[in-house]
Amino acid sequence: MSYTRLIYHIVFRTKYGKHTIPEHYEKELYAYIMGIINNKKSKLYRIGGMPNHIHLVVDIHPTLAVSDFMKELKEYSSKWLSKNSNFPDFEGWAISFAAFTYNLSDKQKIIDYVMNQKEHHKTVSFEDEYRQFLIDNGIEIDERYFLKD
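Request: output the structure for the sequence above.
Response:
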């Protein structure tokens, strides 16, 4: 028996950062994503976002690589979104994503951050937020590829 508790904060955006997730239908999308996560034997602590991006606070099952988890989550949700008339402008997800790990003691802080997205983005753009996450986590940014689809 293996014991793990890996708290990930994952951020991903719509293709080209377009605003294709209508706020009045976001909960429908979030519920669908939660179903995907549950089917992957993973635990969603919080989901939230804006019309052009989503944040997840999730514990991914230890048999799954983060890249595989995200590939499947994007693939399944993209197919669902493409067939759902409530998301007529959705063109797909951007190729990249960002994933960061946190201590269990930081979980509530990250959950609160995700819950506060609407207020946070009144003063901070997604680009600035994403850039700061990368910097804070010691990730070198190659401007040739930063937020390119």
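The radius of gyration is 15 Å.
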